[in-house]
Amino acid sequence: MKATQKDFGSLARRAANECSVFYFCGPDEAGASAAAQTIISMLDDPGERMEMAGATLRKDPILLGDEARAGSLFGDSKHIVVRASGDEALDAVGNHLLGTGDACPVLIVATSATDKSRTAKLLEKRDDALVAMFWPPDLGSVAGSVRTMADTAGLQLNGDIAERIARGAGLDVRLAQSEIEKIALYLDASPESPRNVDVAVLDAIGAKTEDDGFMPVVNAVLSGETNKLQAELVRVRELAINPVGLLLAFERRAAQLASLSAKIGPRGDINGVIQSEKRARRIFWKDERDLSVQLRRWRGKKLDRLLSKLLEMHRALLSNSQSADLLLSQGLTEIARAAAPRR
């Protein structure tokens, strides 16, 4: 079974009922992760969540099948979420499919992979598997998702408010969902007792726009502006910006660079593609200069290494939250130095 972000919503319920292996891929890692969470929420009994890394499965391709058929630590049901890069989990998935006996649901979120990857090809024609491909969304689609989230949470908001939340989340649906949950809690809203959301509400809870929070440090690091880095890291600490949330903004921008780079090709017209995307409202006018610089800093294998580095940092932050600030600062410093122009 195959899907894209356009038809995933209509297929999700059926896939949750009929499939046991789910493969979410494409340059929009945020959308892929959100889709995985949607499927988990639709499982009859998701039970315990078990996280596995693609790098681990590449070294031990038998492990996935063994864990999927083993009982939960607490004796209840469970599901497995694999975060992989490219085809890291290919052999593990193949071995898992050859196994016998009941297995728990396996959900794979694969960065740097598409529906043309070998893992996707292995799964796409199976009735018990879903392959879903996600491209970076535009402002309109994320704003639409925000309004859907708001309806579910008992919030009433207009298109301008939805767009502001979408922009503030850097077009990351996971961050937008978190913002909606925060607003609903602040207003004590529910579907049975809906509340109206206006600009005053957003200001009252301190909902940041991307310029206020994430994007200055994202642009300084990915543009290689090492002279700005220390001040930006200090600002991140002073504003108590969540490390994982900030890293998601980096992942979001890196996925956007990957998507644009694919359209440009090895010797294409960077400025021409940026202007085309701006006219299509897939990028903001104020991002034009930064994207132009960053597309020249991160191309080909260097961009692939950036995506892998961000995935590695994400895993490190989730597994060692007490040292998240330090790990983030070290990782961003390495990336900024790699992006800095050679003297």
Automatic annotation (TrEMBL):
GO CC terms: DNA polymerase III complex
EC class: transferase
UniProt-listed PANTHER family: DNA POLYMERASE III SUBUNIT DELTA (PTHR34388:SF1)
Protein name: DNA-directed DNA polymerase
Catalytic activity of the protein: DNA(n) + a 2'-deoxyribonucleoside 5'-triphosphate = DNA(n+1) + diphosphate
UniProt cross-references to SUPFAM superfamilies, sorted A to Z: P-loop containing nucleoside triphosphate hydrolases, post-AAA+ oligomerization domain-like
GO biological process: DNA-templated DNA replication
Signal peptide per UniProt: none
Tree of life domain: Bacteria
Entry similarity comment: Belongs to the DNA polymerase HolA subunit family.
